[in-house]
Write a structure and sequence with these properties.
Number of strands: 3
Helix content: 25-40%
Radius of gyration: 17 Å
Order of helices and strands: HEEHHHE
Strand content: 5-15%
Distance between the termini: 52 Å
Strand order of the largest sheet: 2-1-3
């Protein structure tokens, strides 16, 4: 078995991408990646089948589209605040290369949430 440090950088990237697709694609939760900067900032880069089923969009309808268009208006303020905080935190950490990915998940329950009385 070859370990990542024994492989050339191109082989490491290919192996990493293969592992990502094997885990990302068949995941039962809706998963997506969006661009972090430049022209691809907040644009869908990849979505899995569960995310397409959750949103009702086909993969080709999401590819390259703005993530924010799919957020419910009631959720926008909180999510934008969270995103701004995460962006500020990322700037304090080591810079990512342009076009890096950020993974996110959305899931839904088949049963309605229960409150304190339920």
């Amino acid at each position: 078995m070859a370990y990542p440090h024994d492989q050339a950088p191109g082989q490491q990237l290919a192996a990493s991408e293969q592992r990502f697709q094997q885990e990302f694609g068949p995941a039962p939760s809706g998963l997506f990646t969006i661009g972090l900067g430049g022209a691809q900032r907040h644009r869908y880069q990849a979505v899995n089948d569960a995310y397409c089923a959750l949103t009702g969009y086909r993969r080709d309808e999401l590819s390259g589209e703005d993530f924010w268009r799919d957020v419910h208006p009631d959720e926008l303020p909180a999510l934008r605040t969270w995103s701004a905080r995460k962006s500020a935190w990322r700037r304090r950490r080591a810079a990512r290369p342009a076009g890096g990915r950020s993974a996110g998940t959305w899931s839904r329950s088949r049963t309605p949430p229960t409150g304190p009385s339920g």
